[in-house]
Amino acid sequence: MTDQSIGLSSFRKNKTQRPASVKPIESADEHRSMPTDILNHSTRISSSKNLPKSIRIAKDTHVAITTLARLQDKPIYQEITDILEDYIQRQPSSVRKLIRSSVEASKEERL
User: Fold this and answer.
1) Rounded to the nearest 10 degrees, what angle do helices 93-110 and 76-89 cross at?
2) pTM for the whole thing?
3) Which residues lie within the region annotated Disordered (predicted)?
4) Which of 13, 17, 25, 53 falls between 20 and 30 A from 6, CA-CA?
């Protein structure tokens, strides 16, 4: 018996190389079905009867929003909408889906 064929010293002389790994092409492409615009707005100008009458916020927050609206020459409700859209876009997709379903449900209630 030869000592090379038994135990730890019996390593293979001709080792095969590991095959090259191939990454799938489609997994690199992230395609999301979630739309970027969650708050869809009509192009017509909103009148006061179509908008909620009030929201309760602190006075300093109101002053900040009013100042932002004046600087950008927009109504306060449009500035609040812009702030909300930016905030929603920074949320994870699961939170955006919940917000979108809530918004769509409220639109269906109005009809």
Assistant:
1) 140
2) 0.56
3) 1-38
4) 17
